[in-house]
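As a warm-up, study this chain.
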Amino acid sequence: MPRGMPAKIGDETIAQNGYTWVRTENGMRYKHHLIAEEKLGRPLDLEREQVCFIDRDRHNFDPSNIEVRPKTPTSKAAKLARLYARRDEAQAQIDELEAS
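Now compare it with the structure written out below.
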């Protein structure tokens, strides 16, 4: 798909991180998610499930290489640490802007 041209349904593009995206009627979707949904016969629950490449090769779309796993819950301490880090970063940016 050339740059500047609208994607058609089924067009694929590879992002810089190596994941393949596919244009669907509902927008761009990861190709491995579409394969996992076809394999499961149902839509993914992205709140509770993650899709992994068993051999870690992001270009191996063999359905036997794609696995759906439950997401592991994040601990309260980890969530707090992320929030504190974001707060501290925002405060540093505010301080920098006020000083200039």
